[in-house]
Amino acid sequence: MATIVKHLQSASAEARHILQKHGTAYGKQLLGQNKQSSATDCALEKSRELPKQLYYTCFSRTFSSQAAFIEGDDRPPSMRKLAAKKEDVVLRAFPRKKTGKIWCKKERRVGLVPSIVFEQENGHLGGNKQLVSVEKAQLENIVNKIGQSFFLSRTYDLEIYDKPGGQIQTKEKVLPRVIHLHSASDELLNVTFIKAPPSVRLKVDIPLVFIGEDSCPGIRKGGYVNTMKRVVAYVCPADAIPPYLEVDLSTLDVGQKILLRDLKVDPRLHLCQKDNSLPVVKIMGTRSMEDAGAANSMK
Fold this sequence. Notes:
Elements: H1 2-71, H2 77-83, E1 90-95, H3 101-109, E2 112-118, E3 129-135, H4 136-146, H5 148-151, E4 156-161, E5 168-181, E6 188-195, E7 201-211, H6 217-220, E8 224-227, E9 231-237, E10 245-248, E11 257-259, E12 270-271, E13 279-284, H7 287-298
Parallel strand pairs: 1-4, 2-6, 7-10
Antiparallel strand pairs: 1-3, 2-3, 4-5, 5-6, 7-9, 8-13, 9-12, 11-13
């Protein structure tokens, strides 16, 4: 028994000696293995999360692009104003005798856009109409330059020729009513016009251009612009249709907004919306920011 105890004591002493001599290196080795294992686990976890992140990133980008397309033009105000500057544009068109899918496809193949010019408001419900075909390259150039909203809020001189390179038959002042694009390729399919002599009053969706964002107190405090309307419908004389309306944000604090009745327009324009107290734009922020802005306004 004593021999066994002595043997165990000597083995224990030898183990302590080995541990004191090589324990640090062994501990570092174990620590390195642990770090490597942790890194592998983290990499595995990241690899599992990566597809989700890519999915949500692609989804957010798609949603943002769709939102930008639905809400309107997201270019800087200076570029929008320059593009929407009212200029006299003359559209060239040719008479069209037939209608239907086959005939319209033939027109598009030769660089023309099938169009209709109505005599009066709601002309599609009855009344005189004229079938024409407008030059596609010219229309696409205008629409791509100023955007659909600005294109539909301007009047144009429509010159109708008897044939390409021929003489002018008639010249009309027209307002674009509807523009149809291909759902997949955004190709210009057809455009509907309505005659707009100076004596006629027409309902027009006028686009809004927001200015003063750089000097807006609410944005400088960390707020953001919540846009409720990008176009506003007015009944306008054909010779007094504004290309756009400016909305100045330079004096708005957090929580403040601009209403329909606050828009500065020509007295000859009449708002189609019965309730003129609806908001157009508001500077949003956190609850504390809005409370502070309300307190400052009360002072």
